[in-house]
Write the structure tokens for this entry.
Amino acid sequence: MGESAVNAGKVVIVGRPNVGKYTLFNKLVGKRKSVVEDKPGVTRDKIEDFAKWQNRIFRLVDTGGLMPNAQDFFLPKVREQVEKELPSADAILFVVDAKEGLTSLDEEIAQMLLPYKDKVFVVINKVDSKGAKQNLYDFYVLPFRGFYPVSSIHGHGLAELLDDLTEFIKTDEKQKEELLKEELKDIPKIALIGRPNVGKSSLFNRIVGEERTIVSPIAGTTVDAVDTLVERNGKKYLFIDTAGVRRPSNVEYGVEFFAVNRTLNAIERSDISILVIDGKEGVTHQDQRLAGLTFRRGKGLVIDINKADLLPVSPDEAERQVRKRLFFVDYAPVVFTIATTGEGIDNLFSAIDLVWEDYTRKHKTSYVNNCIRKIIRSNPPPSYRGKPTKIYYAFQKKTRPPTVVVITNRIESWKDHYKKFFIRRLRECLNIHYAPLVLEIVEREED
């Protein structure tokens, strides 16, 4: 493999017997190793080889060891071998079986992996098996980095896994970057968006000029050179300047193309967008489109009515008109600013804090299910073709945005009007008022 392999990242495969660990191993390294059968009662040493994806090389390790019956998995010898590999791993592939669903042994292994949860990729294998689909969401209760439904035998889903895995793996060059990412991961990333000439640049310069404590670019990192880390009242915020590339590199497309592209990229990279609206002109069709982009991508939103000194109506009436035109993002707080003087900046940061708190809010599964029971007790989902609609259980899948999964027997019963009502009631119970709340309805066959 040459010199590049010496510093290659290390990826460790972990999982109970018969989930397809060594099938996955062979698929990733691109050749069949001489491996003893992966079944209860068979002992083998760990195996390792180099794998390559998109010109990136990494070292793949299958811990192997004793393959006992499930109840004996944590025999000292086995645990010692697995635990020896985990601390030095740059990433961990936790392989589970979609056909069998989440087992008690999977949960025991998950407990062992908790200290490394930020580098655990859950590989949900055998998704092409009969009955596997209805078990997929069982695994999303695990508190790990990401979830990847795959078929190791046929190769389905491996490209997405490898894309994310190789991007994450630490090399010597990336270790410094990872330290910065670790520092920034709990800091809200904020994009200023809006039409030309609404005051975005003035607002950005006012925020940066008054509050900047760490100035971009941050040397030796992959953070964009136009991102600015701002500290205010002891809290940090990463502002993404949509100015980006100041000039089009290809005159064929023109300035407008690049402006739109920069805005789309900024929204994609952000947690929260601040939609800057010209207070004198009010909400335009373009403002609606920009708000719609944040909605479809599940991003937090603050609506900033700038040039508040030029309002043609009272502030209350201006807010009423804005909310009427942007009714689909009714969770977004509205603030008024005058960027040229700095008036309203305090309120802007307060709104960002409100959105961030809700955007990152996490609830236990038991609490989510209590909320669901309260809602359906008074307003159950409608029946479908005369048959009742059941809700088996629910859980919060993730944050940023908060996403709740509801497992039901009839997905057809969940019409738009009921989903909107359900989300509204769920917001109240989960105390999520200022951020998007995503509801995923998953159908499971009746027993």
In short: The longest strand covers residues 391-398. The chain has 13 helices and 18 strands. The radius of gyration is 25 Å.
